[in-house]
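Cont'd.
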Amino acid sequence: MIGHGFMGAAHSQGWRVAPRFFDLPLDPTMALLVGRDASAAAAAAERWGWQESADDWRAVIERDDIDLIDIVTPGDSHAEIAIAALAAGKHVLCEKPLANTVEEAVAMADAAATAAERGIAAMVGFTYRRVPAVTYARDLVAEGRLGEIRQVRAAYLQDWLSDAEAPLTWRLDKDRAGSGALGDIGAHAVDMAQFITGLSLESVSGVMETLVAERPRMASSVGLSGTASSERGPVTVDDLALFTGRFESGALGSFEASRFATGRKNALRIEIAGSLGALSFDLEAMNELQFFDATAPAELQGFTRIIVTEPGHPYTGSWWPAGHMLGYEHGFSHQVKDLVDAIAGGTQPTPSFADGLQVQRVLDAVERSSDSGSAWTPVGS
Amino acid sequence: MIGHGFMGAAHSQGWRVAPRFFDLPLDPTMALLVGRDASAAAAAAERWGWQESADDWRAVIERDDIDLIDIVTPGDSHAEIAIAALAAGKHVLCEKPLANTVEEAVAMADAAATAAERGIAAMVGFTYRRVPAVTYARDLVAEGRLGEIRQVRAAYLQDWLSDAEAPLTWRLDKDRAGSGALGDIGAHAVDMAQFITGLSLESVSGVMETLVAERPRMASSVGLSGTASSERGPVTVDDLALFTGRFESGALGSFEASRFATGRKNALRIEIAGSLGALSFDLEAMNELQFFDATAPAELQGFTRIIVTEPGHPYTGSWWPAGHMLGYEHGFSHQVKDLVDAIAGGTQPTPSFADGLQVQRVLDAVERSSDSGSAWTPVGS
Amino acid sequence: MIGHGFMGAAHSQGWRVAPRFFDLPLDPTMALLVGRDASAAAAAAERWGWQESADDWRAVIERDDIDLIDIVTPGDSHAEIAIAALAAGKHVLCEKPLANTVEEAVAMADAAATAAERGIAAMVGFTYRRVPAVTYARDLVAEGRLGEIRQVRAAYLQDWLSDAEAPLTWRLDKDRAGSGALGDIGAHAVDMAQFITGLSLESVSGVMETLVAERPRMASSVGLSGTASSERGPVTVDDLALFTGRFESGALGSFEASRFATGRKNALRIEIAGSLGALSFDLEAMNELQFFDATAPAELQGFTRIIVTEPGHPYTGSWWPAGHMLGYEHGFSHQVKDLVDAIAGGTQPTPSFADGLQVQRVLDAVERSSDSGSAWTPVGS
Amino acid sequence: MIGHGFMGAAHSQGWRVAPRFFDLPLDPTMALLVGRDASAAAAAAERWGWQESADDWRAVIERDDIDLIDIVTPGDSHAEIAIAALAAGKHVLCEKPLANTVEEAVAMADAAATAAERGIAAMVGFTYRRVPAVTYARDLVAEGRLGEIRQVRAAYLQDWLSDAEAPLTWRLDKDRAGSGALGDIGAHAVDMAQFITGLSLESVSGVMETLVAERPRMASSVGLSGTASSERGPVTVDDLALFTGRFESGALGSFEASRFATGRKNALRIEIAGSLGALSFDLEAMNELQFFDATAPAELQGFTRIIVTEPGHPYTGSWWPAGHMLGYEHGFSHQVKDLVDAIAGGTQPTPSFADGLQVQRVLDAVERSSDSGSAWTPVGS
């Protein structure tokens, strides 16, 4: 694993736990953790249970005893590492966003396609696809239970910028973060909408906004946040993005990515309306899926709160009995399971780098639309 | 009262019930109901308890014993009737939308302004403002409990067109209905957002859509719906409208009016995020208001489900003890109360015709934006 | 109508509104309101729209132009008035509880049985049966959708005594109120459980409690509450009752009536579990019924939130379009409709005085059980 | 660890994960798993990551390199193993229920008290105490935010016996399971109520019931369930228990343990009402705590849905950022953390064996009350 931020903890938990609950066809070893700072990497490896640590990822990807590279670094280094790793014949799991630019993402998808011919797997980490309720939502759509999809409403809502005095973290600096709310959390909303519906967005119209344009510079950093100094500096990324998209089928979607949604800590919500039914999901109640069956007798219709923990639901049979809840990090174990299954089975895992690229293209189209007065903008291909 | 459709029943209930629960300074009499068809008008008058009926509204507005005209006809006749009634010195209550075009609405607002100088009252019926939870939401914003408003999310969701075989009612015919989802229900979302926040929309970007463009022609009409024939005809109004708006303060809002929101019968939802707090309301749980206080200790923060039936809440003290629910039509009694209070007090009621005009201008700007590829479009004035 | 407290307002609204929304076979006239104090009765009659007022109910029940007596006085006068009215050949609607003692209730049920032979109708006002969601719950059970009923959980929760300094109102005085939480609100929980399930309770075990035994005496009375004086007096009724009951079928029920349920203003909740399904209802969301269908595929099972406002649901088709909410007082219109239908049709309305008596017997058995250390006590018959 | 059923998986996850997220003062090693069947134990050890396996627990507790014994066997063996382990100077973590009889539990509590004098720790596994929302509920009560506790409503609802044809598993056989719904899940409701309120139950009145008395014998066993044969046999444990309890303070509680609560898979619910506030929790939404503050202004009062994932909430700061959900098994990591902290700090962990014994005494009193017609029965001491 390369990198050891918050995502490093989550990915480590996935590798640690998946083999204990799922019958994996291969036996993954948590071999080595890489970080720029050798001592920090060693501490993280010790904390999270990796056998070794190192500070030079280039050397690591050449090692014969390493089969898979898990990339959890910031987005600006994804392309370089992933392309090199694939070239070295390593399977790659790359945390989202695939890259900070479409150009990088194209190069990565190309590298993945080439590697695939040699049986090398590449996967991008849109982990929320593997929340059982989300996977099950996809299944219900695929079974036709919603009929023709008409409308999608997706929003990823956080509120850590509601306070105008919240300090300038690196995530608010375009040079380092690449993008703001749109790229960080809007990406999840786009991927989830496309994943569940099985439809791609073809064009968009949107607006990106920086609601609070100046904030106190940070005196020191603690976790995702930090303490403020008296000096102020500019916020150079969007903190709110609103856009509308048209899917290939003609269905319309409304999307929102907000860091100003006061009171919503991590609410990734999606509602999908079809000719025969509807679905509603909120990550704040992540074990539940609301399903409306428009084919039931009118008097009995309503949204059914399905608690997605039954043995027959995706992934859940391997965990606990029905009614026992799963949490945030279980998706990382599901990701490991599916990736290991694909590698052992000689198939390509999903979401592929091409899928990750397509999401980047959507976000890029939103940005271009916003720059041109919200004009409808085709998603490139 | 002129007209006797669904809104006639609701307005009649308002006039019938308000004096029984509120101490009104005047004693309204349900004098006369007007309809084009004399016998249908007579039947409605009998059913709803109006003393007389008539079929010529022009004669009625000249009668000395009539002080107030309540207009519940389709939108295309609002302007003519209201302007004539105001000219005849009658107070006017006009159901929303104020008119089918901005031009008509301008003329009505002008007439109301002129009449106001003579002490004549004019009010437009955005009744949802008078759901106690909505009025209370406005109060909380006005008290500063949300701080600076940052973001609004408003949607009016219905699903009576989800079924592609639902027939072509007059509401789907532009010539008769004037507009579709945007004008019918989007108007409520716009008015509510502006009412609660106290902010006006200044520009918009939007898209209007007709998701199902052809439907069976109607063989016969029953209530809001009807039975289908085998012939098909075109839907000439929008059935889905999505738009983004910028308020005068710089805050952003996302808006949706949908008749395709499968499973949502009459869900007018609004969420408002401010620097100090947030609110959430859904007409499907109309006695409740969710309030988030961002100034509370972090560990105690959360959305509080306020059941808006306390004696100290707007309007509710005149009805039942705390915890006893109100329904849809109570807003019509509140409207009567506020209108009668204004007339007796010699003040102008709200929402005024000017308020109604401003909502029309917003909808018009959305339509123009949609016609020009969702380009940002200023709200006229 | 005899009496003019809070229930008088609710019953008046029922008589006023029902004929405007339902096609009644008879045309009820709000003829006369009786109260002990002539001027207070006159004021209430004026306020609520009764044509006359009077202060001697005995004279009124002899009048030939009065066909029906609606009794909304305190429980200690129900028996005397109802028996006299029935003897005088008047139809009777009597607010719950039927009486303050089983003995009185027996006499009333006997009088009603005798009167029924002459075609006179008698009905007791358990209005919550006529909340559409509750009536629909009964229908679902009657259709067999829950299979064999196994378990019932019913609670009526209020909190107006949570504050130990809330003053001693007449409702806390056994001599005047007859009983406390059990008789006032527990009666509703018992009636609703028996109504929905169609099963009678046969034996009970319970405890009645007075959690705060002394409270400030009241200096003055305002509405249901009042202001406190510095002197204290004893609470002589229960403020919390908990009991278990066995239905005739062997099913078990748990019941609670509490005036100490902090935060619950008027929460009458019931949950019913059967071999094929389950139901859940809460008066705080009175337009909703939660239904669980255990015969659905396991992965799709969950509680469905049915919004009981469809045209095909009980009563709702006569009001507003689907999705438009009803409130507390609509049940009183439904009661009027059903009573008038029964009278016109020559049938006996439900709930009958015998039904009211049976509820009294259950409450009496709870009281006797509580007095004997919660021993199981048969419900008399 | 001794035993390797469902609880073995959960405890293993606790030992595996806790050191990766919490800074533990000691470094626990997953040394050895014991099971009666050597090959099954070896397979479980391999699966869950224990270094060794064994089939003789008596030998294991004598090993010098073992410091702590984690007992996850069925209840009938707890006493023997725990007492021997404590005598051998090992710290003990024993899954609930402490024992199948009060006598055994007394012996265990005595052994723990003796061991404590030598610095040996003993803890019983009521893991739900360590759901962050539950721990936080306890904190709020301890801070006085609820004032004087008046009333508790606790229910543990499952539905795996709703189907009358569900087969006879060992859990329905008194000889093997010791008890039914009361002992298995009612124990959790009792512990949680006492834990959060800080109050002990002093007397109870209850009824235990077997709603379906005969079921198909099991042909084969799979997980918690199995397949049915055509032969039938008796259910010898309760499948529903309802009881009322009085706390030492005079507060009353109602309790329910049901395996017939159709539609509720694992709903451990508790509601607590006090003079200043109230709390509500449901394990089906385990990251949430509903809090009502009766000291807030009346118009702002309501239940606040606190998502218990803030850094300042119990345990949660060591996991993920605010708004990222935890699941069922996280309580097992919290249990490990608190146990290891106690051992390292030389203090006794809670819940102690004495706490476990007290819960057994409550359950025993309920059983005795049920046997004597629900008469009030003191909880022994």
